[in-house]
Amino acid sequence: MTPITEVEGRRLALSNLGKVLYPATGFTKGELLHYYATAADALLTHLRDRPVSFLRYPDGPEGQRFFTKNVPPGTPDWVRAEDVPRSASSVSRQVVVQDLPSLMWAANLVTEFHTPQWRADAPAMADRLVLDLDPGAPADVVDCCAVALWLRERLRADGLDAYVKTSGSKGLHLLVPLEPTPSEQVSAYAKALAVEGEAAHPELVLHRMTRSLRPGKVFVDHSQNAAAKTTATPYTLRARPEPTVSAPVTWEEVEACTDARELTFLADDMAPRLERYGDLLGPLADPDRAGRVP
């Protein structure tokens, strides 16, 4: 029998709580739901008002995975949904996770949360810039840290403040709060930064996705600033062998990193980190921190 629970006045059916989703660690669906409830205050800051894309993995990372932007069948009528332009002639209807009941309903689907760099009420007007630092083996997150530090100073020269989180996979994400700016303009600026980084450090940085060029280098993926693209939301769990989190980190941690394990965070790590640091990405939601793209 599926247990029914009440979350802030909303009734939710939470299923298969004992199901092991991450066999490597024995991490269950019940633990996944507990994690999302624990991280909710911080996570909702970065989900709120943004259309959500779901990467679902209901049988765990080793099972079937599928990506969807459309409102899932059976979505409760109290979960907010918005029409979002997909092209000049079409729209899609997507979930917008605004509150704890909606978050727990979505978490019950077993999903990674992915969001664009703009809000539902201002499509294609980016209020943040993202640079995804993706290492090609044998490069790893330590090399990403070196690139992140260069980019931080380069962005600072343009009057922009950068914040950083792990991707929850192999690399890092740099995030910059912006005054609302057309996504095309942000994309062009992000690409220019990546090109400049490759010119300054050709032995380490790559601005193109070409697979044959990537071994031993850090690909600075600027493409996620396009209006149609999304990035793993801060604090989302990832569909990886272990329940890794896309976790905000301090610049001091980036500067000190000498081993990839130092910037690998699991679900159980996040409650003490939130207690110690609060939401390190909170400034992304502060309009006073927003900068202008040159």
Automatic annotation (TrEMBL):
Domain DNA ligase D polymerase: residue ranges: 28-280
Highest taxon, organism lineage: Bacteria
CDD domains referenced in this protein's UniProt entry, alphabetically: MtLigD_Pol_like
GO molecular function, one term: ligase activity
Swiss-Prot/TrEMBL keywords: Ligase
Stored InterPro entries: LigD_pol_dom, MtLigD_Pol-like, NHEJ_LigD
Gene3D superfamilies, alphabetized: DNA primase, PRIM domain
Keyword Ligase: yes
Name the record gives this protein: ATP-dependent DNA ligase
